[in-house]
# Entry
Amino acid sequence: MGLIGGFFAIATMLFVKEPARGRYLDEATKRKEAEKKAKAEAEAKMEKKNPIKAFIDNVGVVFTLPTARNVLIASSLRNFGGMIVSSFLPVFFGRNFPGYKAEYAYLNALALSVGGLVASLAGGIMADKLEKKSYMSKAMICISGCILSVPLIALGTLTTGNFYLSVLCYALKVLVSGTYSGPAITMIQNTSP
# Structure
């Protein structure tokens, strides 16, 4: 598993490029941010800052940007909901389908690994393609994926007569809700100075 992760890390470093930061800022804001950055770099050279204080100051800067702040709050809420669902599902499947424990383990692992990978890549690709049409496309991908996952998880947990239908709904939920990560990170990068 570690070798596979290492392979993907190397492939990512070789083939994924970081987009230009501050692409959607107006010229006056870009100039102001560049001046602030140059001033901060000059001050940093003159005095050595405590790295922990510097980190806290930089986090404070991120939370002053509305897009970054809202994306971080929304991502936290989305991840909190995902943790609740992930904690609930083993209990749900164990009680409603006690004869399918091994199948659930394999299908859950498959849904999370393959579905999560496909969703993350698809979300990033869709965001890059649709960005040319509207700067709101990234936000719409995040929102629509999370909204579409609600009826899927509801159908999967309220339909207790068919194990495979429940697992399919869960796998589709992973597939549609996992599209948020790429666009969300890119929104933060594009609006950060």
Notes: Helices lie at 2-15, 27-46, 51-64, 66-96, 101-130, 137-158, 163-177, 181-191. The mean pLDDT is 86.
